[in-house]
Amino acid sequence: MSAYCRTFQQRKYSVFCDEDYKILSALKVQYWKDRTIKAREQYIYPPASNVDLFDISFEDFCRVMDDSSRDSVVKTLAMDFGLGGVYAEEVCARAGVDKAKKLLDEDERRRIFSAIEDMRKLRMHANISDGEPYPFVLKLKKVEKEFQNFNAALDFYYGMFMKDELAVEKNSADAKLEKQYSILEHQKEQMKTVEKSIEENTLKGNKIYENYAKIDALFSYIRGMREKGVPWSEIKKELKKKSVLLDEKNKQVIVPLK
């Protein structure tokens, strides 16, 4: 697997590609007219700058500055010279030149040019500054952690994202497990209710079966009384003598069973 970490204008993006330059993962999804940075897209290098900062004379440097249509020196450095926002601002800071300034005098241009040359000579000093990995120590960035090489810095940086992702996945899994546990507990309670209902109804059924003759005789007695035209009030009195209650409202006969 190959990893690419590049600076583009004012935002640094990182992508991981396979051997065929197919993007496996991107720190940020980016869209431009000539390419797209996102997973499963083919990685295409950004358009090359016409300026080679590793082999440029001061005269050519000034010519590019004069031809630039940008409204500030930092944008000229970032876009016309291909430095990107982070390193363009770093150059301005090292040169002591206001990054928002558009027109520079010769002294300011020489300081900018000298700062670029100095940065070309920077030795690798991998670090995490302001939460992001850099191969060099930058004046505008606060170093938080140093590493022996840039790969180690990248491993640490992406390791933090992986830990966060794993934590999110764990929390999601815990939430799903908690939900399933809650459902299981609810089902257990429902099962207890059903089992209790079955037990109670079974007991009632057994009692009815054991007292079937008594119940049948009682209902035969009530039917006989009604056929003779005996009013419910009288039937109720007679049933009360037998410890049987008549609920006329709900049309129920309550028979005590032993």
Key features of this structure:
258 residues, alpha+beta, three-stranded antiparallel beta sheet, 7 helices, rod-shaped, disordered N terminus
Give a short summary of the structure.
With 258 residues, the protein is α+β, with helices and mostly antiparallel strands. The protein has helices at residues 58-67, 73-80, 84-95, 106-120, 150-210, 212-227, 232-241, and strands spanning 2-8, 11-17, 23-26, 30-31, 36-37, 127-129, 132-134, 143-146, 245-247, 252-254. The strands form 4 sheets. A 3-stranded antiparallel sheet has the order 1-2-3.
Q: What structural class do you assign from the helix and strand content?
A: alpha+beta
Number of helices: 7
The residue ranges in which pLDDT falls below 50 over 5 or more consecutive positions are 1-11
**Which percent bin holds the helix content?**
40-55%
The amount of beta strand, in percent, is 5-15%
What does this structure look like?
The protein is an alpha+beta fold. Among the domains are: 1-46, no CATH class; 196-254, no CATH class. It is built from seven helices and ten strands. It has helices at 58-67, 73-80, 84-95, 106-120, 150-210, 212-227, 232-241, and strands at 2-8, 11-17, 23-26, 30-31, 36-37, 127-129, 132-134, 143-146, 245-247, 252-254. The strands form four sheets. It has a three-stranded antiparallel β-sheet with strand order 1-2-3. Strands 7-6-8 form a three-stranded antiparallel β-sheet, covered by helices on one side. A two-stranded antiparallel sheet has the order 4-5. Helix 2 (73-80) packs across helix 3 (84-95). The longest helix is centred in the C-terminal third of the chain and has 61 residues, at 150-210. The radius of gyration is 43 Å and the shape is rod-shaped.
